[in-house]
Amino acid sequence: MSLDLKNLIKKEYGLDVILVNKFKGYENDNYFIKTDKNKFVLKLYSDLTLKFILKAENEFLLFLQKQDNKDHYPKPILLKKGGYLKKVSHRGKLILIRMLSYLEGDFIAECKINKNIISSLGSFLAKFNLLTRNWNNSEIKSRDWEWKIESVELIKNRANYIFDPFRRNRVIYFIQQYKENIVPVYKDLRKSIIHNDTNQWNVLVEKDKITGLIDFGDISYSNLVNEVGIAMTYIAYDKEDILYWSGILLESYNKVLPLKKKEVESLYYIIALRLCMSVSNSAYTKLNQPNNNYISEGEENAWNMLDKWIFYGPIQVKNYFLKSTGFSLNKGKKEKTYIEKREKYLSKILSLSYKHPLVMDQSAFQYMYDVYGNTFLDAYNNIPHVGHSHPIVLEAAQKQMSKLNTNTRYLYSKINEYAEHLLSYFPSKLNKIFFLNSGSEASDLAIRMAKAHTGNNQIVIIEEGYHGHTQTGIEISDYKFNNSKGIGQSNHITKLPLLQKNTSPLLDSEIEKMKKYFISNDLSPSAFISEIILGCAGQVPLSKDYLKKIYSTIRSLGGVCIADEVQTGFGRIGTHFWAFESYNLVPDMVIIGKPMGNGHPIAALITTEEVAESFEQGVEFFSSFGGNPVSCSIGKAVLEVLEQEELMKRAFDVGNYYLKQLMELKNQYNSINDVRGSGLFLGVELIDTDYKPNSNLAGLIKNQLRENNILIGTDGKHNNVLKTKPPLCFSKKNVDEVIQRIDEAINKFN
To answer: Cα separation of 274 and 232, whole Å?
Structure first.
């Protein structure tokens, strides 16, 4: 090969070559060439269609030579017969050849980075852009390809080649964010010919000063701010403090070529998309060029930076960059303003979380961002089940919303498709579904159906249970009616005690007491309704023997059994998709909601054909938007994400780790009486030195964690249980953060 190239160079350039070394490359072959007098870079291209873009690149480099004669950029080398690009036959194949001057210097990638180098890069790049902003070329202007940030749909298509769906969906999220936030403001962003690939292997440095920029194969006509955004990406993505290093580069660039405020604000999304482009193209190349390792270099760094970018959130990053460039920050209104307006229009009965209320603006996966740019780790919200702002769910909603949304009196495919998919997760006996808009509505309907099926009015419930905010929901919720401000227990309600332990004599006596009550009063229950793990009670799992015996007795008395899976369903407990499955039970009805739509209001009641047929004999059931096309599309998307990302398994793995870490805290502190729950549905019960419920400590810890930017809740009869039920994308690293902060808070207040 070396001899072939030497002969080729001699023939086409008239140069006697003494050394040939191959460089690593992406698409074309690059060689270091040394003669007795000079050094060059020879480039060979097998793709002949690149002729016109290579001609344009040569013209660009010649333009730079006229503007800057200090050898900052490679210079095209004339062929022996004139011109800078030629099609030749080499080793039996037609190829394109061109040669460039070789620039001396060390790559930034091989240097110990310091502030001077980064500042020098920023100013160098800005001066380069000042030189090139008025250069024009139709070929480059029309170029649309995989390394141009504006080629969003191409990036999205290539993202499909990312094997890990968990990672792939994070890329799709940022693509959506770019389309939502940057595409609409294209008109406000200045355009220019840019280098488009200022990575650590394309920048040369000597004595802490940038001396050269090489590899112009990616030049594009693009938004000017993309130039500095790309450089910021590559200079920071392998650093711990990515904002610090990228901020230094931005500040120095801005001093030479001032950016507009909108350009600075766009950088969060530009940097994210460049990272997405990198990992997507890498995945595509791996499939088509499995032996090409060049494109995969730095891939893990890119993924790590994307994770950090999600953690920081757009508001924090925007404000950091605005400060670096001297612009005023985007400050939200004071909390007092929000509270005053809320109280003006909303009733005070609608409570707020935390002593110091939060003013939220955006969210992504397991993080929420307030209007001031603070990031909060969400260890509490079980409604965004698969993650806040999940792109697959959002995409399904947008797509269907633009096509059709109507009430359920019309025929449409979405409701059938979703019903079939959802029912596949239930025992075959549970084969009829009623779509609604909330868990409370589902609870209400369940009681109505039970009464219609049995002809009875009596309802059996569990102490401290909660089933919704409707009139019926409150009547069947001890958590509500037994409150100090509650309505009290109605005559048609029978309450069983909350029993967590398998203490057989006690179990049997309570069930026998209930049975005697019905028989002696010539009554029959219509239904028994209960959660499997009682959330508002403080994540309390019912005794398995207890629940089985209740089901058996209720059915023997002519009633039906209703499982409330509003909080525990959809794989949250880790071991099973529905909590009732872990008890080896099959209810007559199941009510689901909250996580079903990942924040969109959708719920359902699933029952047997027998119960459904009884209900059909009565007055018509109708819900205008229960099961509408948009809701069904969203619900189906949630199921698909659960399957693709294997989130039930994640709930099991992360949940077990979480439980273990909490148990270690329990062994460390006498103030922790119990740790309980399953998967990512856990509770920590706190007591004082007299073994009494310590609601004060629970409140202090909850609010301290809020000040530490971690969201958890408190619940239970005495409000002494720390409650954590995060989105299922929660990680072990997230668990460690929560554990550390709980540990610190207990030490502080205990």
So the answer is: 10
Alpha-carbon torsion angle 538, 541, 543, 545, nearest 10: 150
Residue 178 has a CB neighbour count (10 Å cut-off) of 23
> Does 90 or 155 have the greater pLDDT score?
155
Q: How confident is the model at residue 717 (pLDDT cuts 50, 70, 90)?
A: very high
The whole-angstrom separation of Cα 401 and Cα 340 is: 34
Q: In 3D, which of 328, 190, 176, 179 has the Cα closest to residue 263? A: 190
Nearest alpha carbon to residue 385 among 439, 428, 345: 439
State mean pLDDT over 86-100: 91
* Burial class for 457, CB neighbours closer than 10 Å (0-12, 13-18, 19+): middle
Q: Are 74 and 41 in contact (CB under 8 A)?
A: yes
**pLDDT at residue 589 tops 90:** yes
Whether pLDDT at 318 is above 60 = yes
Distances (CA, A) of 103 to 54, 106, 622: 19, 10, 75
Are the CB atoms for 344 and 400 separated by under 8 Å? no
**Band (516; pLDDT cuts 50, 70, 90):** very high
Decide if 658 contacts 641 (C-beta within 8 A): no
Domains of the chain: 2-101 (3.30.200.20), 107-324 (3.90.1200.10), 339-386+647-749 (3.90.1150.10), 391-644 (3.40.640.10)
Q: Which is nearest to 43 in space by CA: 51, 31, 55? A: 31
713: its two tokens: 């809740």
- What does the block give as tokens for 406? 């109507």
Tens-place pLDDT, residues 678-703: 999 999 999 999 999 999 999 999 99
* Per-residue tokens: 563: 């499982």
DSSP lists the bridge partners of residue 22 as 31
Taking 60 as the threshold, does the pLDDT of residue 311 lie above it?
Answer: yes
**Using an 8 Å Cβ cutoff, are 176 and 395 in contact?**
yes
Beta-sheet strand order (sheet of 713-715): 672-678, 681-686, 721-724, 713-715
How close are the terminal C-alpha atoms of the chain, in Å? 75
The winner for highest mean pLDDT among 26-35, 74-83, 136-145 is 74-83
Q: Which residues of 94-122 are buried (b: 16+ CB within 10 A; e: fewer)?
A: ebbbbbbbbbebeebbebebeeebbbbbb
Confidence class for position 347, pLDDT limits 50, 70, 90: very high
What is each CA distance from 45 to 54, 55, 88, 140, 365, in whole angstroms? Answer: 10, 13, 10, 18, 43
Helices then strands, counting H and E runs in the chain, come out as 24, 27
Tell me the CA distances in angstroms from 673 to 276, 319, 540, 689, 744, one per residue in order: 46, 43, 13, 11, 18
In contact, 697 and 749? CB cutoff 8 Å? yes
Rounded Cα gap, residues 146 and 262, in angstroms: 25
Instruction: Return the pLDDT at 331.
Output: 81
CA distance 81 to 12: 8
Average pLDDT value over all residues in the chain: 94
Tell me if residue 733 falls in helix, strand or coil: helix
Q: What is the strand order of the sheet 367-370 is part of?
A: 360-364, 367-370, 375-378, 710-711
Contact 574, 646 (CB under 8 A): no
Say whether pLDDT at 172 is over 60: yes
* H-type alpha helices, 313-425: 314-324, 335-345, 391-401, 413-423
Encoded tokens for 504: 């057989």
* Predicted model pTM: 0.93
